[in-house]
Each structure stands twice: as C-alpha cells, then as structure tokens.
Amino acid sequence: MQQECRKQELRHRNPPHSTGPLDRAAFAVLVILSISLPALLTAGCSWVDDNGVIYYRQISDATAADTDTNGVESSPRQAATRKAPSSHRKLTPAQRAAKEQAKQAQRQEKHCARLQARLDRVQYRLDAGYQEPQGNALRHQRREFRTRIFRECR
What we know:
- The protein is mainly α.
- It is elongated and about 110 Å long.
- α5 (93-128) runs antiparallel to α6 (132-153).
- The longest helix is centred in the C-terminal third of the chain and has 36 residues, at 93-128.
- 66% of the residues lie in helices and 10% in strands.
- A 3-stranded antiparallel sheet has the order 1-2-3.
- A hairpin with a 5-residue loop joins β1 (42-48) and β2 (54-60).
C-alpha cells in the first residue's frame, strides 16, 4: 500500500507533460531569437528632411549588390509613400490656372453630354409614340433641354 502511494506521489510531482527548467529556458531563447532575428538580418537608417518627413531605408545581404548611393536601398513601402521633391510639387500661378481651366472644361463637357443624353431619351420617347397629355409634357421637356444646351453648351 505504501508503495502504491509513493508511486502516485511521484507521478503527481513529475507529470509526463510538465516543463522543466531546461524546457522553459529553451522556449525563452527561441522567443528572443524570433524577435531579434529580423533586426539582425537587415541594417537600415532613417533621416528627417526639411519638411519633417521621416524616411526609412534598409539594406540586406541579398540586395547589397543592387543598392544605390552609399549602399542604401529603399524599402518598397517607404518608396511608395515618399513625397516627390518640392520642385516637382509647386505650380506657378499660370500652371495652376491652366490646370483649373482644364478641369472646368472637362466638367462642362460632362455636363453637356448628360444634357444631350437626356434630350435624346425624350426624343426617343416622342418617336416611340405617346398619348396626348404625355406628348405635351415630352415636347415641353424637349424645348427645355434644347434651350439649356443652347445656353450652357455652345
């Protein structure tokens, strides 16, 4: 009886699935390596330009041969979010006015195309046949659209 109690006591102290100090240490090393390994494999740098924009660049062993100046290559994410040099962003007042004029012309063209499409639908309904009260309303709409096109689009 005492032997059975002792066996149960030993099983209770050291269950087969328990982790000893060695298993915990190995797990801790594994976690630390998995966190620090990406930082060890790539080297990088960052800087702030005059406008306060932060730039990040990195190099790795695989791309060291294909790097640009000073052995630094942009990461794809930073390259996509990087701003253009300030000389490319600023427009002169004449360029700004020309750009706004082009936008306005495009809006006007779109507006006139919509008016013409509505006039075409009314004309189609007139050509398809109608009953008398509806015909008067359709002719009135046609006159209105023709007047608007004449005033706004010519």
